[in-house]
């Protein structure tokens, strides 16, 4: 029994989105063979997917034969980011008020975690915060761990990433801001870049109880994104 045209089309779309995600996360781009290996498909399938993405200027092939993100991705990224912010910010305002701490929405950009939105708790005399657009390496901080945990498991991944995926949130201390606690819950929706909600605070009692609340908030955002 063969797959229906609709099922085949859905699979092709999912593969194309995955290719776009893989290329966007590779600092030096990817070759056709590398894409084929990561998708576990024949080289010819990877080539067709990359060619289609190139037609829409979402990726571009360099002189070295490696594919990197193209100019068309900027407009697409802007729309995706607006969608994520629209779904997340009402939830973030509720969570910041509930926990009395700064909540941020972060996504993966290459090898870094980038803040798309930052919400401070209302009426607080003093808060720990940072600016929208702030970034740090994925290897550091609760947000970086949660963003890696939002992806499928990979061979040799760090133990804290595996742990965060299993329990639903990541927690760190002093890895991005000295003396600060970070707690983050991943948001994974097919077709969208890995994202997370992150809390940052100097208060250990706030961080210790924040995991379940962040997980519930991430689930609300995911439900909004799925419609």
UniProtKB/TrEMBL annotation:
Gene3D superfamilies: 3.30.450.40, Winged helix-like DNA-binding domain superfamily/Winged helix DNA-binding domain
Record-annotated IclR-ED domain positions: 72-227
Coiled-coil stretches noted in the UniProt entry, renumbered to this chain: none
Top-level taxon: Bacteria
GO MF terms, alphabetically ordered: DNA binding; DNA-binding transcription factor activity
Keywords in alphabetical order: DNA-binding, Transcription, Transcription regulation
UniProt GO BP: negative regulation of DNA-templated transcription
Domain HTH iclR-type, residue spans: 10-71
SMART domains, alphabetized: HTH_ICLR
PANTHER family the record matches: HELIX-TURN-HELIX TRANSCRIPTIONAL REGULATOR, ICLR FAMILY, HTH-TYPE TRANSCRIPTIONAL REPRESSOR ALLR
Protein name per Swiss-Prot or TrEMBL: IclR family transcriptional regulator
């Amino acid at each position: 029994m063969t797959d229906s045209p609709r099922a085949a089309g859905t699979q092709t779309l999912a593969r194309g989105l995955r290719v776009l995600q893989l290329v966007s996360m590779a600092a030096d781009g990817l070759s056709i063979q590398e894409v084929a290996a990561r998708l576990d498909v024949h080289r010819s399938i990877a080539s067709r997917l990359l060619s289609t993405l190139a037609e829409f200027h979402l990726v571009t092939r360099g002189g070295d034969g490696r594919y990197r993100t193209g100019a068309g991705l900027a407009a697409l990224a802007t729309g995706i980011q607006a969608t994520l912010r629209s779904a997340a910010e009402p939830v973030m305002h509720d969570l910041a008020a509930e926990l009395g701490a700064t909540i941020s929405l972060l996504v993966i950009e290459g090898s870094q975690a980038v803040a798309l939105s930052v919400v401070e708790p209302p009426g607080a005399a003093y808060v720990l915060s940072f600016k929208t657009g702030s970034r740090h390496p994925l290897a550091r901080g609760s947000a970086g761990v949660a963003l890696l945990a939002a992806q499928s498991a990979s061979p040799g991944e760090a133990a804290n990433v595996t742990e965060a995926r299993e329990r639903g949130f990541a927690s760190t201390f002093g890895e991005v801001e000295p003396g600060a606690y970070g707690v983050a819950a991943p948001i994974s929706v097919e077709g969208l870049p890995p994202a997370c909600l992150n809390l940052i605070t100097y208060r250990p009692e706030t961080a210790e109880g924040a995991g379940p609340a962040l997980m519930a908030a991430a689930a609300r955002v995911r439900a909004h994104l799925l419609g």
